[in-house]
UniProtKB/TrEMBL annotation:
Keywords: ATP-binding, Hydrolase, Iron, Iron-sulfur, Metal-binding, Nucleotide-binding
Annotated residues for binding of ATP: G99, K100, G101, G102, V103, G104, K105, S106
Complex and partners: Homodimer.
Species whose genome carries this gene: Deinococcus aluminii
UniProt similarity note: In the N-terminal section; belongs to the MIP18 family.
SUPFAM superfamilies tied to this protein: Fe-S cluster assembly (FSCA) domain-like, P-loop containing nucleoside triphosphate hydrolases
Residues annotated as domain MIP18 family-like: 2-74
Protein function: Binds and transfers iron-sulfur (Fe-S) clusters to target apoproteins. Can hydrolyze ATP.
Keyword Hydrolase in record: yes
Organism classification: Bacteria, Thermotogati, Deinococcota, Deinococci, Deinococcales
Protein name in UniProt: Iron-sulfur cluster carrier protein
Amino acid sequence: MRDAVWTALKTVNDPELHRDLVSLGMIEHAEVEGNVAHVKVNLTTPACPLKGQIEGDVRAAVLAVPGIQDVVVTFGAMVRPPAQPALPGVKYVLLVGSGKGGVGKSSVAVNLAVSLARDGARVGLLDADVYGPSVAHMMGQGGARVTANAERKMQPIEAHGVRFLSMANLSPAGQALVWRGPMLHSAIQQFLKDAAWGDLDYLIVDLPPGTGDVQLSLTQTVHVTGAVLVTTPQDVALIDAARALDMFRKASVPVLGVVENMSYFVAPDTGLTYDIFGRGGSRKLGNLPLLGEVPLDVEARQDADRGLPAVLAHPQSPAAAALTQIARNLAGRVSVQALAHLPEQLPVV
């Protein structure tokens, strides 16, 4: 009967990877005790967006085996290393960018990082907006100072399960940095290679607005897994987002999807939805996957101001729920991207 269960599991495909769970090496064990099958599935990311569907498909397939009356499905997760790791100990580097400021890019980056960590991934967050760093404040660590470890490497600050570095924690509060391109390049190099990031599944990088020195330094320094474009729906934001998209393509950085921020507003007193900036404009960027739409939310703004990410402070709010799903969709896109480098047949544990 055990062999029949394994045969049944070969008919269950991962909904995103479109290959069966057995050939993907996602079945850790499948045993039968009496008339009950026990199956453990190792997901390709702790933030798998389709965990419920996978569980339902496994149960349906195994229950079809004669003699099986119940199925107990448990889950583990392991973010598989890519063929070419981004940095020593860092599996994937994900850029969060926009063509212009004011679209909520940093807020999205912070909540993506915290959401992935809350789902169980090991996450780092690099604030590469050297001139206008805001990540430290949004993480509630504006007054913290970066220290060095015994190997004289920068020790990232930890908050909400995420390790992060920001220029705000290295320079005096309120001091403007008046740097030319070479100094920016040097700073980015140090953030990436002279920091004790440890073992990370994902390193989220909050880019500055535009298409300048920092973006070039990053793409030339590390193997970037992919980028996320953040935009608001109106044309004036989309014009600059299109420029950022062109920059990523010229730098051979895959764009994993787009996040439409401030997409709509739900009036708290009536529940009516208002498309203040014109909803759905992100679809004008071409065939990019839409990772999700984030509504305008007063609580999310207040949470950012007091240094607590919305996905933790008000996880049931519309904005936080959207950001959580976006993080899971992004993790799924990374898994799909990694599949292109996986062998056709993976070993069964």
